[in-house]
């Protein structure tokens, strides 16, 4: 891993519009072999759909706690996670004693019935909000398609020519998580986080940020580098599964969220 001061940017046009992806694969290998994080632009996801899902998130988080509690997180990891209930107790990156200062709605693949042979199979839990399910489903499908393309690029970047491995991602295990971070007091404790330092466990995380900011990525020297919002771009980072799949050639990098902007994120 290389010390860095900024997050690299990858232009996905060759991947999403058709063309030679060899140079892009080399850029992917460099970004995720040195930093583990990157912005992606020209990704092919409709900005209007992205705006719609942000509006849906605002509508959901504006509901009363009583209404949201009706779909509290279940054993299939779907539903509502209230603020002050989630503590990352598995991280070895920080001593976490306080719960994350965030709440979230979680959806996964929509299964009519739970399949005992399929990881976390089951139906989603939906709030009583007109159009909410349709918007989230459309966004999850668009992001899954982008994720599939990125996994193909990740394989190309490590020299894997047999794309049969992509069948393991069909259908994918996915989470769409609509997170809400209230502003933290400026004088809050150093160990109070919107999201405590951690690494993701999956293959790829694709993040849409609003204009508030607060995401930070840790360098090998232990410094924290801001990953500020970039218009219409997604932040994409590697998780532990892709780190292992690539024989450690792709980096799962620690990151955190601290929201002291005075605005909700």
How are the SSEs ordered, and which strands pair?
Elements: E1 9-11, H1 13-16, H2 22-34, E2 37-41, H3 47-61, H4 65-69, E3 79-81, E4 103-107, H5 132-157, E5 176-180, E6 195-198, E7 204-207, E8 215-218, E9 224-226, E10 234-238, H6 240-245, E11 255-257
Parallel strand pairs: 1-2
Antiparallel strand pairs: 2-10, 3-4, 4-5, 6-11, 7-10, 8-9, 8-11
Oligomer: single chain
Rg calc: 18 Å
Secondary-structure element order, as H and E? Answer: EHHEHHEEHEEEEEEHE
Number of continuous helical runs? 6
What does the main sheet amount to?
Answer: 4 strands, mixed
Find the count of extended strands (DSSP E, 2+ residues).
11
In short:
The chain is of the alpha+beta class and 265 residues long. It is 26% helix and 17% strand.
Please tell me about this protein's structure.
The chain has 265 residues and is of the alpha+beta class. 26% of the residues lie in helices and 17% in strands. The chain contains 6 helices and 11 strands. It has a 4-stranded mixed β-sheet. A hairpin with a 5-residue loop joins strand 8 (215-218) and strand 9. Helix 2 crosses helix 5 and helix 3 (47-61) crosses helix 5. The longest helix has 26 residues, at 132-157. The mean pLDDT is 92.
